[in-house]
Amino acid sequence: MSYSKAILTNNTFRLRINTQNSFFFFIKKEKRNQVILFVALIAAIVQFYLFKLFYPFPDFFSDSYSYIYAAYANLNINIWPIGYSKFLRYFHFLSHSDTALVGFQYFLYTTASLYFLLTFLYFYKIKRNYIVIIFVFLFLNPLPLYLCNYINSDALFLSISLLWFTQILWIINHPRIYQIFLHAILLFACFSIRNNAYYYPFISILVFAISKQSIWRKVSGAAFGILLIIPFVIFTRSMAFKLTGTYQFSLFTGWQLANNALYMRDKIEIDSINLPDAECKELDMISKNFFKDIPPGTYRRYLSSYVGNYFIREPQSPLKKYFENHYNITDRLSLIISWGRASKVFEKYGIYLIEKEPIHFLRYFVPLNMRHYFIPPLEKLEIYNLGDDDVLIIAQDWFDYKTPEVYSVSKTIQGNILSVFPLLFLFTNLYLLGCLAVVHFKGRPLKIYHSFKGILLVNIFFLFANFCFTILATMNVLRYQIFPMIILIVSAILLSECVDRMSINQKSIDGNSNSIF
Amino acid sequence: MKKVLIIVCFIMLLCAPFIFKHDMNLNYSKLPSLNIMLPDSSTIYNTQNISVEKPTILIYFSPDCDHCQEQTRAIIKNINYLRNAEILLLSNSSIFELNNFIHTYQLNHYKNIIIGNDYNYSFFKFFNIKSFPYVVVYNNKKELVKLYKGEIGIDKIIEAINS
For residue B19, what is the nearest residue in chain A, using CA coordinates? Predict the structure, then answer.
């Protein structure tokens, strides 16, 4: 028998102890898995085909052009992590077609989701209804279609994150030595695509720590992923030095830190003499002047209409004013160089303010961001191509368009279609917290809970890390939360399964008690 | 019943591209037949008179726009690479301003450059022009090759006429 089952409880939960090939046997043997595979693939083809009739062109916004430029100029560093631009460049050697690129992004997502779902079902037995919920979210959902239609790193990051997380399922349940390398490569890929992967290495360390394997394999597994990232960080920093004259890993971090700190600048008193250097003093002077002319009430209301990036986006903001005063932008390359140079100044300023006034930071920046965490704004997803009829020349050339004109069935309908997802994210968070409370107070001794404990621990840790990163460090929008939403749904389902079993057990206990009396 | 449903769905999917077909770009696909006034302020020139053997570069510009001036300088500098194309520089500015522009860039020295006044805004309306320069390249069959909104590198124009 190529795969065997160890029955751990006398209920329906099974932990499969498998040989390496038995995952494929599991897919082949169980009719349900074949149905999942078949329906998911057919649904993906049909949905993509129809979607492309309604949206013949990809969706673009400012970041799209930045990624394309970095790919076109073969840069090794950009304002955003360089991974997606490298992907664009290599894909361009294969095809100039936008449909091929968007198709690749979507079918990579479908494949990663299938691998994730089947692996999940391989290790954890859950009720049919719950499988349907995950299936619908992964494969019959307009959100990934819209996301994959963007020329932006979100779709690729989502797919690679799904693959990385699937690998985590394997490491927790069925550790093998080759997974150390596979996991490290996937972690590296995530890290090179989006800054949101900053906290992924901590998840990896936890996963290897709780996995059942020898200590040297645990240590090598946790270390190898990080070891692969370190040369990338060193390389990126040296590229930043070549371009901007300063060592930094991300040309965006300084902007984000200063932006976050400025949310409290009007509420704190700072002695500018103590600021780290002359540039910070100048920036602080601009900030003070900015706040002098701003009506406080209106300003705070206005701030909340932004997704936590007011001082990066608003042309009148102190950061933009400083940038405008100091740098002359002539082309896209000079923009990246200047952006990076300014980032270093802003980083010092932002860190100084936050370290000096952490309580005010928690009071004035975090609550606003927390609201955006629980109800993430649709932002760019709300409207096709930012409502424009054209794309920039760089995109026109990259995809060999005859004209810069792009069109779709509607520019605004996607805002209505996707409007349910921010609320779904809120609901799933609340549901998960409810389930956690029930299981924690009533169901911990349950055997099924112990069987899910490893993955639940990782999921909760992931969600907590994502929550902290989102509310403390970055702006938040729905497209950043799609992968966390999948983890949320899976965690909620695992906990629901525990709660269901608890009620079954309770009923049987009640039944036995009744029979005694 | 199930089979019928599957066949109906399949037929609907096949028909979908024809139902949702979008023909936004059909207007530009051929060089339009439109009149312009030449700098002598009396001759009306129709775009159908452009040589059928050569590709056509149509540039809509404004004499006082920096990007248009830059684009014109780039064209003059690389005129050797553009010898096989007819270049039509169009503007809705006055004949007086156009003649100044011709004089500044010595455009009358180049046989393959025609400067015209879009006196009845026919090009302007046809292409729905919102910014300058506006560059359209047609091949020798007068079929659209590229349409650029904004200043474009001369290499892209050369590439377009040779494609």
Answer: A53
- Torsion angle defined by CA atoms of residues A63, A64, A70 and A71, in that order, rounded to the nearest 10 degrees: 160
Min Cα separation B91/chain A (Å): 20
Interface check for A407 against chain B (CB to CB < 8 A): the answer is yes
User: Could you tell me which of B129, B101, B130, B132 has the C-alpha nearest to residue B115?
Assistant: B101
Alpha helical stretches, state H, B20-93: 66-77
Upper half-sphere CA count for residue A429 (Cβ side, 13 Å): 20
- What are the structure tokens assigned to A486, written together? 């999948």
Report yes or no: A396 at the B interface, CB cutoff 8 Å: yes
- For range B27-44, the mean pLDDT: 88
Quickly list DSSP for A161-199. Answer: HHHHHHHHHHHHHS--HHHHHHHHHHHHHHHHH-GGGGG
Q: How many helices (H) and strands (E) does chain B have?
A: 5, 7
- Residues 6+ away with beta carbon under 8 Å from A51: A145, A149
- pLDDT beneath 70, residues of chain A: 1-21, 443-449, 505-517
First to last CA, chain A: 47
- Is there a contact between A21 and A2 (Cβ–Cβ < 8 Å)? yes
Task: List all residues 6 or more positions away from A89 whose beta carbon is below 8 Å from its beta carbon.
Answer: A71, A72, A74
Beta bridge mates, A331: none
pLDDT in tens, A249-258: 999 999 999 9
Is B149 a member of any domain? yes
How many structural domains is chain B composed of? Answer: 1
What is the rounded average pLDDT of the residues B97-103?
93
| Residues of chain B contacting A409 with CB distance shorter than 8 Å | 20
Q: Which residues contact A5 (CB under 8 A, 6 or more apart)?
A: A14, A15, A16, A17
| Exposed/middle/buried for residue A40 (C-beta within 10 Å: 0-12, 13-18, 19+) | buried
R_g of chain B, CA atoms, integer Å = 20
B17 is a domain residue: no
Q: What is the pLDDT of residue A469?
A: 95
Is B14 a member of any domain?
no
Cα end-to-end span (Å), chain B: 53
B33: number of Cβ within 10 Å: 11
- Smallest CA–CA distance, residue A392 to chain B, in Å, is 8
Domain that includes residue B99, residue range: 25-162
Q: Any idea what the CATH number is for the domain that residue B36 is in?
A: 3.40.30.10
Asked if omega into B133 is within 30° of 0 (cis), the reply is: yes
Q: How far apart are CA A452 and CA A190, in angstroms?
A: 26
ipTM of the predicted structure?
0.81
Give A178-192 pLDDT, tens digit per residue.
Answer: 999 999 999 999 999
pTM of the model: 0.89
Output DSSP code: residue A129.
Answer: H
Q: Is residue B96 part of a domain?
A: yes
